[in-house]
Each structure stands twice: as C-alpha cells, then as structure tokens.
Amino acid sequence: MHSADPDDAGTGGDFSVTGRGVPVEDRDRWEQVAETSSYRPLDRYVLFEQQVSEARCNGYGDVALPATRRWSVDRLGG
Question: CA separation (Å) from 8 to 11, 13, 62?
C-alpha cells in the first residue's frame, strides 16, 4: 500500500506499508468492523486484516519527518 502523491513533485513525501492481507473468518469480528464503518457493508463482503511487515516514510525537503523513517516487524520484535 502506498500513499497517493498530490502532484508530480511529490509534495509532502511518501508513506508506504508492506505486508499480507489475511481474510478474517470470525463473524463477530466482521460485525464489529461493520458497526464502526461509515456505511453498512454487504454480507458478501470479505474482511481482510493487513499484517504489516514494514512501514516507510520519505520526504523531499518540504516536510519534517520523524527521526525513524523505516519501521519493520523485526525491529519491533513482532
């Protein structure tokens, strides 16, 4: 998953997340997510949980970035 760039100059930088999407089979959990959604999903919709393995941010000089610019499961102990 990658953030959208607002223009060709990359204003604001980039943020990306990598990982796996895993289907959620637990119906109670599906209902909990549906209740917090801004719309009522159809019963046939499949819920996926993204299991993040890495997140990164990159700037182009126009925004302040955090000291850490790359987070990974290995570094977080997960």
Answer: 8, 11, 14
Distance of CA 6 to the CA centre of its chain: 18
Residue pair 49/16 in contact (Cβ under 8 Å)? The answer is no
**What pLDDT, in 10s, does the model give residues 23-74?**
999 999 999 999 999 999 999 999 999 999 999 887 777 777 777 788 888 7
Alpha-helix runs per DSSP H in 1-78: 27-36, 73-76
Does the pTM of the predicted model rise above 0.70?
no
Q: With beta carbons less than 8 A apart as the criterion, state whether 34 and 15 touch.
A: no
Cα dist. 6→11, 14, 40 in Å?
A: 7, 10, 30
| Residue 58, token pair as written in the block | 């990159």
Residue 41's SS3 state is coil
State the residue for tokens 């990982």.
Answer: 19
